[in-house]
Amino acid sequence: MKRQYKWIAFLIAFALTFALGVKITPLSERAIVAGLALDMEGEEFTVSAQILLPSENDSKSSGIIVSSAKGSTIGEALAKISSESSMLIAMSHCNLVILGEGLIARNAYSALDYLIRNAYLSENALLLTAEGKAKDILECKTAYSEMSSFYIQRELLVYGNYKEAVRRNIKDYLASYYTENGANWLTKVRKRETESPQSGGNTESSSSGGSGQSGGSSSSGGGSEKVYVLEFDSCAIIRKNEFCFSGNEQVISGINFVTASLDKGDVVVKEGNVSYCFYIVKSKCDLSYSPNDYEATAKLNMDLFLKEIVDPNCVNFDIADVEPPPSVNELVKTYVIDAVTAAFEQSRARGVDIFDLYGGFYGKAGKKWYGLSENYLEKSSLKVEVNVKYF
Amino acid sequence: MINFITKRQFAFVVFFVPFVFKFSILPSILSLTASRDIWITMLIIMLIELTQLAFIVKIDSIGGLEELKKRYGKIVYYLLTVPLLAVMVLKGAVYLAETTSYSNSYLFYNISTRGVSVVVVIIASYVAVKGAKGIGRMVEQIIWLIPIALIIGLLFGKLKLTPSYILPIAVNGVTPIAKSLDKCLFWTLDFTPLLFLKIRNEKALPERKRSRFPWIPACAIGSLILMVALYALYVMNYGGGSHLIDTAFSSLGAFNVVNTEIGSIDWPSITLWLSIAVISLALKIFGSGMVVSSIGIKFPVAVLIVGVIITTIAHFGFYNLERAVKFATGYVRYAIIAIELLVPLIVLILLERETVKKEVPKNEATV
Fold first, then answer.
1. How many angstroms separate the CA atoms of B138 and B153, rounded?
2. Domains observed in chain A
3. Are A380 and A296 in contact (CB under 8 A)?
4. What is the pLDDT of residues A169-179, one digit of tens each?
5. What is the pLDDT of residues A126-155, one digit of tens each?
6. Min CA distance, A306 vs chain B (Å)?
7. Prior bond to B168 cis, omega within 30?
8. For B131, which of A78, A293, B2, B85 could close a Cys bridge (C-beta 3.0–4.6 Å)?
9. Domains and their CATH numbers in chain B
């Protein structure tokens, strides 16, 4: 009798599943988005998606295409891409979102609101901004990878170090947006033309305008095709919906020293003619706050490894025996302190509380902070303490 | 007997039941009012819920609902269990809408909502038909997903927490916490279906087979710590943007996510949540089926009727999660919390009164 129930339940489930029209879309009918670029011109969004094209046998991709469409909302533009390609837009494999300069200058959050609420797109997707149009970055053929989105991900997640890899994802942006000051920062990517080390390629490009027109151009690759290297040596500093300024490598380093746990990258200091290169084994920062004095302290604990010494007067020495002299230790500390101070001061000058001191002071003082918080940023100071251990 | 369950299985159910629907859309709803203090709200909810559990365990130890029916007759039994039936069906419908929305968000693209809810109810009903033993065995198997999810998360995942997001604690007083507590009454007291389970008496077992470990208190305390910790971690992760996340557990699966070039892997957390959601629904259908079958209908038929009613309400009454949430945060929540608090209390008083009157030792009343 019990077995009968089991079979009846299975039969009912299957019958109802088919009867109620549950349709599984085959892989060949899905436009698997690997990267998304969002731009804004006038009042319209331009959404570009780097799509992995399915092949006949479903086992591998037959190429990539960057498809674009305009719309007053992101959903509308994505629907146009879906309609143009006759495929279902699949966002679950999209791990990269690039925001164009125009969008950052206007209101980045208006675009992100849709992405945050879209469960199909992971909130862990990397988020960065582009110098110029985001679409240009997504479309460009890089010297090191056929797909710009994969190249960017590798650079930021695997090989980038603290001077460039500001690893921010949608969730990070959201959490920072809702702090009192709303300070945010995103890696700024730009392209630089370079010699082509590769030949061939199958990148295509198509676009569909807001009026519904579609068309495109395809480039077959070859030696004449331009290839690019992407650079990540600046970052956009944003406050709520306002773009404030572009930070340089020192600002990026300063932000990373305080907000991230580092385990790669070099610190290079010079004393006279001698250059010292240290590898960052580990670096972590703890922030403490004294709201009554408007003072925050960033205490950095760093483990460094002396990797290289360039000394024109000394050529034969065993690097393992060389301890950095105290003066070099001071130079290392100054290097770190300068980076953190640059990030803090340059941001503060534009009203950006880059290290969320408000949150720290408020957390410590509680209700009392309400009476103290007026013009807190101008009154605040950031003390940086660096403890270095050498291996 | 269809409602018999071992002490350990009962304890695992206790551990899992609060976890699933309190950690999906609820944190987002609570964040709107309690903001960074939602973990305090959850602490209060869990304390209320564990009080209900204490009533239920006590009721079970002096005979349970069957004893009530035997001593006071069917009318008293129906007077007390029919309101519970209504509560379990309504909660089942709202939770079904939540499960369907979750499945559509994470597992399928543009799939028919109707189809998903029907399939989920059929699976939950099947588990319910298998009775307490089936539910108990399922939780024993699913509990292994926790270490799997943890190991994968610790090996590959990265969780970036900002502890300062949780501070200061209750800076705006108790009002925001009280308001959030008021909003989430519908999601409180989820142990109600356990009234229909019966913990197997281990005294009949040989000494070596008896469990000395206090499974039920351990799992109840574990559940309280887990829920409060999850809510605190949630705030440390999302800060002021917590109200935008409507699938908390899978989203917190950032801890559990492996980022690759082609996307992210958060299957362990999705599977864990979905499995417990089905068990939780199965418990509600089981409890409802027990009430319906007590009028003389065969238990599987009663379960089928309950399943159809729950699906109908979820689909035609709510259609989507937004409407279900609107319903759950409406005035009906007061009626539901009152029933779920008062019925176990009345049952306990009636059984205790009769027990004292007849001078029946508690141990003998236990099956």
1. 23
2. 27-247 (no CATH), 250-391 (3.30.300.210)
3. yes
4. 888 888 899 99
5. 899 999 899 999 988 888 887 888 888 888
6. 29
7. yes
8. B2
9. 4-365 (1.20.1740.10)
